[in-house]
Amino acid sequence: MPAAKIYYDSDADLSAVEGKHYVFLGFGNQGAAQAQNLRDSGIPNDKILIANREDHYAEDAKSKGFTVEHDFSKAAAVADVLFLLIPDQVQPRVFNTQFAPNLKESVTIVIASGYNVFYKLLNFSPKQDVVMAAPRMIGSSVRTLYVKGSGFPCFVSVEQDGTGNAHAISLAIARLIGATKTGAIASSAREETAMDLFAEQALWPTIIMAFREAFSVLKEAGCSDEALVYEMWMSREPAEIFERAADEGFIEQLKHHSPTSQFGQLSGALSLDGKSTKEWFQHILHNQACVLNGKFCKEFSKIEDDLEKEGPENPLNELYRRSEASELGQAEKRVRQRLAESAAKSS
Ligand code: NDP
């Protein structure tokens, strides 16, 4: 694979989006941040419209000086650029029924996550542009980093080039929201979805399992719940390690640890060949969970409505119940309760 292209402000020509009207569907986490960044990049307020139901998100947009439209068909009709910034699970229903029938043929649709496009759940017309500007961080950081003038990491791509100018438009949009300041990485909905779902279904489960089993082995060896909970995560040491990894490098950060720790970590990691873990990861990506072949998406859509339910009918509640019943879950509950009781006594 060749190295990915990285785009900077100087690669993005704002004339590609001159005079366009911007509609943000959603003023939540990403919507509020990206709309404010776009305005602060020089787009006049009367060229920006927030499409939102009548509630606290709409009130927030108004309080920040934006014009809000509650009628989605009216909002769709004026959009030259539509930012799709509502949760992924509601996008197909809202976009396909309330936006798609009313959009201009030449509109550019901007997605912030690849999922619905990669699995072909959104109905675009062939002449429309579909581009991705997917920040790698939460909305509040997208905003604060923009305000600081430092930009934020982001993936960009063209998923459908209906007008023939989608590439130039995608870079101009990325620049307006502040994504090309530190470099926007060329990616794709496929790559973004694969990495996201892989992290969720393979990498983090492996880390959770490693913590769970480490807890169990150390407890068997006589360590107390209190000491373990602090040692393993409540001291925030893992968070600091990842902070330093982001700043200095995944391996380089080890040099902040004691020589004993460095020796243990490096020699221990090198002695594990990772073969079975790699096979497991490949299985998740290609076979079992079928991240790439769409089977996961089909299976997940069958239970999606159940995730709104209360009580045991919601499959997430059952997964929480089982996870909280684990040795680690029970121990942490006891330790947190004890700490809360002592804090209450001393206050
Ligand atoms: P939020 O959960 O913050 O979205 C809330 C917004 O969506 C509100 O404006 C809400 O308004 C609206 N909304 C929710 N349900 C509906 C509905 N049924 N009909 C119409 N509007 C609805 O979303 P995020 O900002 O977290 O995510 C937006 C996109 O950004 C997603 O594609 C996500 O994957 C992507 N993304 C998110 C990141 C994050 O950190 N959160 C990071 C990078 C990308 P109301 O309820 O009033 O209708």
TrEMBL record:
Residues 307-347 are annotated as: Disordered. Pathway: Amino-acid biosynthesis; L-isoleucine biosynthesis; L-isoleucine from 2-oxobutanoate: step 2/4; Amino-acid biosynthesis; L-valine biosynthesis; L-valine from pyruvate: step 2/4. GO terms for biological process: isoleucine biosynthetic process; L-valine biosynthetic process. Residues 4-187 form the KARI N-terminal Rossmann domain. SUPFAM superfamilies: 6-phosphogluconate dehydrogenase C-terminal domain-like (SSF48179), NAD(P)-binding Rossmann-fold domains (SSF51735). Pfam families: KARI_C, KARI_N. InterPro entries: 6-PGluconate_DH-like_C_sf (IPR008927), KARI (IPR013023), KARI_C (IPR000506), KARI_N (IPR013116), NAD(P)-bd_dom_sf (IPR036291). Residues 319-334 have a biased composition (Basic and acidic residues). Belongs to the ketol-acid reductoisomerase family. This is Acetohydroxy-acid reductoisomerase. It comes from Pterulicium gracile.
